[in-house]
Amino acid sequence: MNRIDPAPYAVDASNSLGRMVHEEAPSGRSEFQRDRDRIIHSTAFRRLEYKTQVFVNHEGDLFRTRLTHSIEVAQIGRSIARRLRLNEDLVEAVALAHDVGHTPFGHAGQDALNSCMQGHGGFEHNLQSLRVVDFLEERYAAFDGLNLSFETREGILKHCALNKASQLGMVGARFINNQRPSLEAQVTNLADEIAYNNHDVDDGLRSGLITLEQLSEVKLFATHLEAVNAAYPRLDGRRAVHETVRSMIGTLVTDLIRQTELNIHAESVQSLDDIRAAPTLAAFSSELLEQQRELKTFLHKNLYRHYRVMRMSTKARRIINELFMAFMSDSRLLPPQFQRQAEIDQARAVADYVAGMTDRYAIKEYRRLFAVEEE
Ligand code: MG
Q1: If you write DSSP's letter for every residue of 73-85 in order, what string do you get?
Q2: Can you tell me the distance from the alpha carbon of 155 to that of 74, in angstroms, rounded to the nearest whole number?
Q3: How far is the centre of ligand 1, averaged over its atoms, from the C-alpha of 73 (Å)?
Q4: Whose CA is closest to 160, among 133, 125, 188?
Q5: In angstroms, what CA-CA distances link 328 with 148, 321, 324, 325?
Q6: N or C: where does the chain have the smaller number of CB atoms within 10 Å of the terminal CB?
Q7: Tens digit of pLDDT for each residue in 310-323?
Q8: Is the pLDDT score of 96 beyond 70?
Q9: Rounded to whole angstroms, how far apart are CA atoms 215 and 271?
Q10: If you measure from the C-alpha of residue 154 to the centroid of ligand 1, how many angstroms do you get, rounded to a whole number?
Q11: More confident residue, 375 or 247
Q12: Which pLDDT value is given to residue 87?
């Protein structure tokens, strides 16, 4: 196999801006491969298996969890990175870590915890992902967290309010200086979008919460479904859906690569510094951007606000709220390591504990605290 030279603006692992605690360079793997390996071995990563985005974990075995979602983001991101000659290892590391700060119960959980934290600095899953890899993982002798390299941490912190950015040192600086992250980080961000739009279509159909008929109003889906039906007129329903989703992903990936190449060319980008100074370069064409928007609007209206999803979201909010209030009213209910942290900042300790819970752990903890018949 021919070795393909990386693009001149790709991140080079040997020029990494380094880790918060200095470590010798790894042997036999690159800095970003080491980051990826640390992420895979972390407890926060394993918990992703029991955290969900739209469907709660116990609703079915076939739905995406945050773990399978993160693996899909890594797969899509790596394909894009390879074609753009970017640093695939960095994309993989960012993709696998991007959701480790998520609360249980998807967006309903995040919104509930953020409301609880008003007046205590708020809660934002993106910042929490960084907090997990920087501080919360307790595995290594020499440091808290995973001590990841700057470039991986930069990719994890997709967005950040200015008042928070000023407290984050080097990784917050780009928000203040109005600079962009590496193209690897930009690509991973869009790979995330491609992954969830498409798997939510797939999971939505499988759950029966949305129908093929409804989805035929959405141009992106309808065009691809028609093409599949024309090529394979007798294909059964599930396979037709899979072929449609597969071809939507393919189209979005190809479009993203093409448009990003055009943008790189238009901005005469030659180096990583140019990437940071230029506007965001990873992008879809305006046509596919519009089609994706239509799909997103459809999913918001018909799936994320479906009454069965809403019922679960309401329950999720109640669980998060009541757990938060119970631990705030008496920190002695917290496990010992969080009690120690609570002496410094009780609300943040409670948020860290609650955010780290899986869906089923949160439900169990709720029962343990509020059901009289439980231990
Ligand atoms: Mg994601």
Answers
A1: HHHHHHHHHHHTT
A2: 13
A3: 7
A4: 125
A5: 32, 11, 6, 5
A6: N
A7: 888 898 999 999 99
A8: yes
A9: 42
A10: 16
A11: 247
A12: 98
Report how far ligand 1's centroid is from the alpha carbon of 84 (Å).
21
> Residue 149's beta-bridge partner residues?
19
pLDDT at position 61 is 57
pLDDT at 1 over 90: no
pTM of the complete model: 0.95
All structural domains of the chain, each given as residue ranges with its CATH number in brackets, are: 31-310 (1.10.3210.10)
* Higher per-residue confidence, 41 vs 207: 41
Distance 144 CA to ligand 1 centre (A): 24
Q: What DSSP designation does 57 have? A: G
Ligand 1 centroid distance, CA of 319 (Å): 23
Separation of 239 CA from ligand 1 center, angstroms?
Answer: 25
CA 141 – ligand 1 centroid, Å = 30
**Ligand 1 centre from 294 Cα, in Å?**
19
What is the C-alpha separation between 151 and 13, in angstroms, rounded?
9
- Ligand 1 centre from 296 Cα, in Å? 14
Buried b (16+ CB within 10 A) or exposed e, 320-348: beebbebbbeebebbeeebbebbeeebbb
- Average pLDDT of span 93-111: 94
Q: How far is the CA of 231 from the centre of ligand 1 (A)?
A: 32
CA of 157 to the centre of ligand 1 (A): 12
